[in-house]
Amino acid sequence: MKNLNKTITIILSMLMIAFYTISPTLQINAKTAKSFETGDTVALSIEHYGNYKVGQNSIELSLGNKEAVDFRAALNKTDQALSISKEEKALLARLVHAEAKGEPYVGKVAVANVVINRVEHEQFPDTVREVIYQKNAFQPVQNESIDEAADDEAENAVTEALALNKSEDKSLYFYNPDTATDEWIRTRDVTKVIGNHVFAI
């Protein structure tokens, strides 16, 4: 049994290293598929996922309630990310830093996602810079706190939001209900609440 487990471990390690040189197809359940799509690092475990079969150009895991998911497409989801310049990415990180300072990391990702969603929405400008500098859109632009350098967490949050910009979260607004003075924003449909921010469409 130990030799079998060792052999399986070696095979899986080689497959993970070589996945860019083949076109594998995985049979995985919906929960596992979601973990690939969100960019998580996935360690394949035979005990957890069940039996597997290696073909010339494919890898199949035998599971119940399975869905076919393209392995390479899932792991390379960042190829679908919104393409922005280095300067715009830095600008967005500064906005996230200013707007979500003290908020949980997931809240910072959500703030960045709002800007990305606006870029892709027909009612807003078409670039990150134009969205951020749209009149009265973001308070840090008005009080110039956007000029403060972003920290690593804000930069990482932007990177993650860009990689996941095809997510189901289509929030276009966020606000702090304790400080917001615009009554209109409170009429928007709430999508989620993270920390001190309410997100809405």
Automatic annotation (TrEMBL):
Pfam families given in the database record: Hydrolase_2 (PF07486)
The Cell wall hydrolase SleB domain, residue ranges: 102-200
Domain of life: Bacteria
MF GO annotations: hydrolase activity
Membrane-crossing segments per the record: 7-26
Gene3D superfamilies linked to this entry: 6.20.240.60, Cell wall hydrolase SleB, domain 1
Keywords, comma-separated and alphabetical: Hydrolase, Membrane, Transmembrane, Transmembrane helix
UniProt key word Chaperone: no
Protein name: Cell wall hydrolase
Organism per entry: Metabacillus litoralis
